[in-house]
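INTERNAL AUDIT FORM
Audit reference: QA-55
Scope: verify that the stored structure record matches its stored sequence.
Auditor: D.O.
Record contents follow.
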Amino acid sequence: MAICSPRRLAEWLCLLILCTGCASPKTISAEHRSEVCNDAVRIEFISTWNQSIEAMRQLELEGVAQLEWTDEDGSHREQGDMQAWIDGDLRVSLRLTKFGDVVVWIGQDQRVAWMFDLLSDPTRLTIVSPKRSTLAGGLPLDPSVLRLLLGFEPLPDDAEVMFLSTGKRVTGNIGAAQFSMDVDDDGRPLLIKVAYGDRQVEARHRWTAGSVMPEPVGVARRCSRVVDLHHGEASMLKIQLSTILLLTNSQLEEQSVVFDALGRIRSHLGPAVVEDRR
């Protein structure tokens, strides 16, 4: 068997080094590249977004939902028909029912956060301060945070907008909350992340499941039919919307009972235990 001469061996080694040095360098995935939009594009995007959700301040949502959470009593999972009411940045109320019977009713206003758990034994109403709410595993009940996650909140004028290969990313602050929102090329929200206090929550908008047009039609933008809200491993709310109703002040006032947790709702549901942790 022929043996390579030292000269031939040196040539092969040089060739190997050259080939290694010419290998294509690792590049950042196009999905992760970003470029800050110029001011004209940024202003136009924010203006278009805010106009599209301007009428979505007071809402009634209908559909089905699955709520999962972990607390000191263990893990819980409830699903049923859902109705939710959002009154701007002031108050929110979300009710789950099965066969017409309430199983979970949860909400928050500027004074209290509350939760009726009618499947526990004994049935229970828990009342806490909004600033320290860990109801349903820390489900985001702050109205402005919930609206932001659902894509109903106006963007601040100083929000930053960046181009991504898949659309745009918007970042900024609303009150005490920091947010990041990824949208596709049509401006539809895909992933919204919000950090407030010591919490980080996110919402994934699953457009492949279809969309819902708010009523009255033509006043606001289409919304994703399915939205998944996550607060780490502690809480998950999966919503499948069937109807989004835009309410006037008078229409919301007619349904004001849905926010009266400590009065008419408590009287109607009659929980066996009332735990006030404020």
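Auditor finding: record pair retrieved intact. The helical segments are 6-21, 39-52, 143-150, 249-254, 261-269.
Action required: none
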